[in-house]
Amino acid sequence: MTTEYAHWRKSRRSAPDGGCVEVAPGSDGTIGVRDSKARGRGGPVLVFSRAEWLSFTEAIRRG
Question: What are 21-31's pLDDT values in tens digits?
Fold first, then answer.
């Protein structure tokens, strides 16, 4: 079964030229991350488990 990712969102801190990433929750509880330029073109999606995503974002906050 293929995981569906809906409700993609960009960071408020995205570059005005659209050079950024988007994130979306997956139907299976994972978090998908993609390049915003690949929107709708079937580009690759990096997949994180909820625990991996929380660990990653916490590490970013701590610097």
Answer: 889 999 999 99
Q: What does the DSSP 8-state code read for residue 29? A: S
| 60: its two tokens | 């970013």
The one-letter amino acid at 20: C
Gap between the Cα atoms of 37 and 19, Å rounded: 7
Contact 8, 24 (CB under 8 A): yes
Amino acid letter, 12: R
Claim: this prediction has a pTM higher than 0.90: no
Q: In b/e form, how buried is each residue of 15-25, taking b as 16+ CB within 10 angstroms?
A: eeeeeeebbbb
8 Å CB contact between 34 and 43: yes
